[in-house]
Amino acid sequence: MIQKQGHWVPYELKPRTTASTAEKKSSPDIAPSDFHLFRSMAHGLADRRFHSYEEAQKWIDSWIASKDMSFFRRGIHVLPERWEKVGSSDGQYFK
């Protein structure tokens, strides 16, 4: 571990360079989980307030445990189609 700006970190953090990041067709802001996991989770979170980090963590753990394997498989299987749609949308909004 090394100390950086008064904080201990497990390794030397280095800034990204153009040489280390390949140009991507899709936006770096788009995560695969945005389309399946968080979209589904948002329904359970509607009008819900947490009063502590622990309460939120407990709810998230419980929510994930309540999903069967087919939920996660379905989300994984639709990723190629979703990524293609994102890439071909040329930055335009779509549902």
Question: How would you concisely characterize the structure shown here?
Answer:
With 95 residues, the protein is mainly alpha-helical. The chain has a domain at 32-88.
- Identify the strand order in the major beta sheet: 1-2
Rounded mean pLDDT is 77
Helical/strand content category: mainly alpha
Could you give a short account of the major beta sheet? 2 strands, antiparallel
Q: Care to count the β-strands?
A: 2
Q: How many alpha or pi helices?
A: 4
Low-confidence stretches: none
Gyration radius (Cα, Å) is 18 Å
Name the shape in a single word: extended
How much beta, percentage-wise? 5-15%
SSE topology string:
EEHHHH
The rounded distance between the terminal residues' Cα atoms is: 44 Å
Write the layout of secondary structure elements.
Layout (H helix, E strand, L loop, with lengths): L1 E3 L2 E3 L27 H9 L7 H14 L2 H9 L1 H10 L7
Antiparallel strand pairs: 1-2
Describe this structure in words.
GO terms for molecular function: nucleic acid binding. Residues 1-29 are annotated as: Disordered. InterPro entries: RNaseH_sf, Transposase-MT_Hybrid. This protein has helices at 37-45, 53-66, 69-77, 79-88, and strands spanning 2-4, 7-9. The protein is mostly helical and 95 residues long. The radius of gyration is 18 Å and the shape is extended.
